[in-house]
Amino acid sequence: MNLIINKKVKLIKWLRGDDFILQHVQSKKLITMDEYQKLKSISDPGTLITDLLDLMVQKGDRVCVGFLDLLNEDDVNEGSPELRDWIKSVKIPEIKADSQHSTQSSGSSVNITGSSGSSIGTPVIIDATINNLNINTQLTSGKTTDVMRNDRTQNSNPRNTDYQGFLKTNRSKLIDKVKVVDRIVDDLGLADEMAANVRAEKTDQAKMRKLLDYTTTKSAARRLFDALNEHAADVMEDLESA
Q1: pLDDT tens readout for residues 59-118
Q2: Is there a contact between 52 and 20 (Cβ–Cβ < 8 Å)?
Q3: pLDDT (tens digit, 9 = 90+) per residue, 101-147?
Q4: I need a surface site. Which of 27, 36, 53, 188 has the fewest CB within 10 A?
Q5: Within 13 Å of residue 218, how many CA atoms lie on the same side as its CB?
Q6: What share of residues in the chain are helix, strand, coil (percent, to 5)?
Q7: CA 55, CA 172: separation in Å to the nearest integer?
Q8: Please, where are the H alpha helices in the chain?
Q9: Tell me, what DSSP letter sits at residue 104?
Q10: CA torsion through residues 168, 169, 171, 177, sign
């Protein structure tokens, strides 16, 4: 918590130019949907980052540690060399050890059973230190499409994937085949002007071309790759198996 407070002015300077920081924070579940909507409504970047940092501090040490972990990810700090240099020097593991909010659990198990025609999602475990985790899944009959698609998406998204290279190599095919660009835009959290420019195009091909033109960073490419797997899984499966 003190690290964020002491470095607050610098953090505001480093993060105010990041159009996707709010989406990163939400994806790590550091803020609620109501908090996300309230922050998203703030138009001034400096005020947005200031309020975000204040909220992180208010939420306590565990959330502050999660926020520092987030800043340590290459997708987040790639746009600010000063932020990257600083966060790499922070001893985050020691902060974790001092956290008063970490808990341990042992001897617990969870069984999830789905009847025919149902879908089962992966459970989310928070505020726990896990020494051993075993997940056994048995599929009998019913809808397995969502489970199989999620598994394929996760396996195709290792952190060392060259997302920008994939999008560049398959640019023409993506422009030609992807027909759900508006739904993809909904998931990307683009700046209002960018989203409006994409939606203003008259054809799906033109929209996809504009969206690819806006995808200029590693983090943006990764988000688009994930959204394509979610909304155009058939196209991505064909491209990845080619």
Answers
A1: 888 888 888 888 888 878 787 888 888 888 877 655 443 444 444 444 555 555 555 555
A2: no
A3: 444 444 555 555 555 555 555 555 544 555 555 555 555 544 444 44
A4: 27
A5: 12
A6: 60, 0, 40
A7: 43
A8: 2-6, 8-15, 21-27, 33-40, 45-58, 61-71, 74-77, 81-89, 92-98, 145-155, 163-169, 171-177, 181-188, 192-200, 204-214, 218-231, 233-241
A9: B
A10: negative
Q: Is the distance from CB of 92 to CB of 114 less than 8 angstroms?
A: no
Please, is 138 exposed, middle or buried when counting C-beta atoms within 10 Å of its C-beta (0-12, 13-18, 19+)? Answer: exposed
Collapsed DSSP state (helix, strand, coil) of residue 129 = strand
- How far is it, in rounded angstroms, from Cα 104 to Cα 162? 37
Identify the DSSP state of 16.
T
Angle at 20 between CA 234 and CA 16, to 5 degrees: 170
* Residue 6, amino acid: N
* 42 token code pair: 């703030």
Residue entry with tokens 């064909």? 238
The type of residue at 157 is N
Q: In 10 A of CB 107, how many CB atoms?
A: 4
Q: Which residue has the tokens 């060399």?
A: 81
pTM (2 decimals)? 0.42
Asked if 66 contacts 24 with a C-beta cutoff of 8 angstroms, the reply is no
